[in-house]
Design goal:
Strands 1, 2, 3, 4, 5, 6, 7, 8, 9 and 10 form a ten-stranded mixed β-sheet that branches. The chain has an eight-stranded mixed β-sheet with strand order 12-13-14-11-15-18-17-16, with helices on one face. The protein is 17% helix and 43% strand. The protein is an alpha+beta fold.
Length: 260
């Protein structure tokens, strides 16, 4: 997993990528973002691959875990938020409306984690880190630039993250009458929460969306399509967020491009 960097909230969240075909996924994302990969063998024997830009970590690729992850699943981008004691976090779910998705687990010497869903769904990890890597800056092309939760219950999800993680919140009124909420850690916006956009039902499912910064969305879309991706939402410019595009990679995972 990799920490969002570029602010005092550098340890606010992490991402990783799970797939049944790590080698194919590595080839695809290297072609799109220019990532290089470093092999990391954990003490328990599992092999992971660190996706890097220069000397900074972008994310980690891992195979689905036998007996824990269903082997017939598509590739999946996971989002994790930093927390303190994982057992205390799990105890709090009963009062905040969250659902426990997996029992707490210790992974090597990196920390302890658990998966949960906030109200409205959206499989999410909570991570108590024991150490950190040097992270790629979020404003660099090829790094994680933003994450957002699309949910049928945005206000309930916002309240959940406030209660469980202590996030502050900023609300942005939208032209359609809805609200786009951002979660803040140490005064820095680290994630968004919103309803599934009208007209994108069946294309964007409820859950986490991961955005990668690029210098040119058009060029990155072309590289992704050449490597086997399918464009779900064509490049579109917005006054607030710049040009974005949504794609599905050859492993079936959805990801987004954000022009920096």
């Amino acid at each position: 997993m990799t920490a969002h960097a570029g602010s005092d909230a550098a340890d606010a969240y992490w991402t990783d990528f799970r797939t049944t075909d790590v080698e194919a996924a590595k080839s695809f994302y290297a072609a799109v973002f220019g990532w290089r990969f470093e092999e990391y063998v954990a003490r328990h024997g599992s092999t992971y691959f660190l996706a890097c830009l220069a000397d900074g970590l972008v994310t980690i690729f891992a195979p689905y875990i036998s007996g824990q992850d269903p082997v017939d699943m598509n590739g999946r981008w996971n989002v994790y938020f930093a927390t303190g004691d994982v057992r205390e976090f799990v105890d709090g779910l009963a009062h905040s409306g969250g659902v426990l998705e997996s029992e707490p687990a210790v992974l090597d010497d990196a920390g302890e984690m658990v998966f949960f869903s906030p109200p409205g769904g959206g499989n999410t990890g909570a991570w108590h880190p024991w150490r950190r890597f040097r992270s790629a800056r979020s404003e660099d092309p090829g790094a994680v630039a933003w994450i957002e939760l699309l949910t049928p219950e945005p206000q309930a999800a916002v309240a959940f993250f406030q209660q469980q993680f202590g996030h502050e919140v900023t609300e942005y009124p939208q032209d359609d009458g809805g609200t786009y909420s951002t979660l803040l850690a140490n005064g820095t916006e680290v994630a968004g929460i919103a309803a599934v956009p009208a007209g994108s039902e069946g294309i964007l499912d409820p859950g986490w969306q991961v955005y990668f910064g690029v210098s040119s969305v058009a060029e990155s879309v072309a590289a992704a399509v050449a490597a086997g991706a399918v464009v779900l939402l064509e490049p579109d410019g917005t006054e607030e967020g710049g040009t974005i595009a949504t794609l599905r990679d050859p492993q079936g995972a959805v990801f987004n491009l954000l022009e920096l």
